[in-house]
Amino acid sequence: xxxxxxxxxxxxxxxxxxxxxxxxxxxxxxxxxxxxxxxxxxxxxxxxxxxxxxxxxxxxxxxxxxxxxxxxxxxxxxxxxxxxxxxxxxxxxxxxxxxxxxxxxxxxxxxxxxxxxxxxxxxxxxxxxxxxxxxxxxxxxxxxxxxxxxxxxxxxxxxxxxxxxxxxxxxxxxxxxxxxxxxxxxxxxxxxxxxxxxxxxxxxxxxxxxxxxxxx
Length: 216
Fold this sequence. Notes:
Blueprint: E1 3-6, H1 10-25, E2 30-33, E3 38-43, H2 47-57, E4 67-68, H3 75-78, H4 84-93, E5 98-103, E6 118-122, H5 127-136, E7 139-143, H6 155-162, E8 168-171, E9 183-186, E10 193-196, H7 202-208, E11 213-214
Parallel strand pairs: 1-8, 2-8, 4-6, 5-9, 10-11
Antiparallel strand pairs: 2-3, 3-7, 4-7, 5-6, 9-10
């Protein structure tokens, strides 16, 4: 049975965060607010929980889940050979609407989908998300909607689509704006490549990463 907590109420927020962190540790799914959209999340290192996340969305491992982190320092344990432009982008835009695709550490034993050795990682700009991630560590988090359906800007939108597949819904009211999802930059090559323009424009990113190009 799903539970939804009103995180605009201090007591419900405290209880909801505690229950959500416990659910993540048990390998269950939670919905959390981010600065761009609501996300459905699971412990990034519990492979069967990540598979359950993909099943709840109705999509397979060919579309791997991004990973949300509580701080830039977390990247040291996740990313291999982080280029200087990657750190510059992190310094400029984290926390916020920037997802970086980087090579992950080869020692990691997770299974977040067919990533070909990469991970899409982001630090969200939302206090509820940061507080939860600080308790749980890195989480596999994808948009909280069924594949092909509109993204969820409220917890109720997410609950209408995902129902009891999710144990805990953290409701922080409406999130996001017309910019939509995060912008995605691939930093695995010799120069950064913008894969998706979203919350951050190409021009904004270019100011920090002058060698940035658009994906063909």
